[in-house]
Amino acid sequence: MDELNTETKKAEPDPASKIIGLTGGIGSGKTTVAKFIENCGFPVYYSDERAKAIVNENDSLKQRIKALLGSDSYDERGLYNRKFVGEKVFNNDELLGQLNEIIHPAVREDFEQWVAQQTKYLIFKETALLFELKLHLQCYKSLLVTAEDNIRIKRVMDRDGKTYREVESVMNNQMSEKDKIKMADFVIYNNTNLEDLQEDTEKIIFEIE
Cβ neighbours of residue 130 under 8 Å, at least 6 residues apart? Predict the structure, then answer.
């Protein structure tokens, strides 16, 4: 009888993966941390990269964006005109909000499909706007990557060839680091070198319960 019960008993389903929100401002090193996380064997969903792909893949999305911002939202090859769109919504919170209302639901659906395919007990959602869009409320825990302002500015200047003022302008349009730190469950301070950053990343991953 015991053998029969063992054979007929249904296997317990695996517990749902815990979603960890990963974020950081420009020049913080967020993407580098995401790569370290993947090296530790945990999957990362790159929201910002997927959004860039989705606006080119989804025909319905294309039409709605053109209706909102004009036909120049896409170039002659039919690709999303990031420069044009950026200029249209810069310093226009209402227009930016309308654009986000078009794009973010599509990214959310894409993310949910990705989550359904995962098996690890921890999975990470990388997004620049984790706190701004209150996406951290949908996550088990949040992880912020930050650094001193002057370090972040220099990194972006070296990486993108932008001027100090250009980087500073972008940073001024993002949520303050102080506010993000208050909201985050875990914080990585990326002020030194890659070795320290990797060590801090691995330490925090295995602190998450």
Answer: 21, 22, 23, 136, 139, 142
86's CB contacts (< 8 A; 6+ apart) are none
3-state secondary structure 5-32: HHHHCCCCCCCCCEEEEEECCCCCCHHH
Beta bridge partners of 55: none
Span 124-148, average pLDDT: 96
Calculate Rg over the CA atoms of the chain: 20
**Closest Cα partner for 25 from 163, 153, 201?**
153
Bridge partners for 45 per DSSP: 125
The helix (H) or strand (E) run that includes residue 125 is strand 122-126
Q: Is the pLDDT of residue 10 over 80?
A: no
How far from each other are the two terminal CA atoms of the chain, in whole angstroms? 38
Burial category of 2 from C-beta neighbours within 10 Å (exposed 0-12, middle 13-18, buried 19 and up) = exposed
* φ/ψ (deg, to 5) at 208: -70, 125
Tokens coding 15: 């517990």
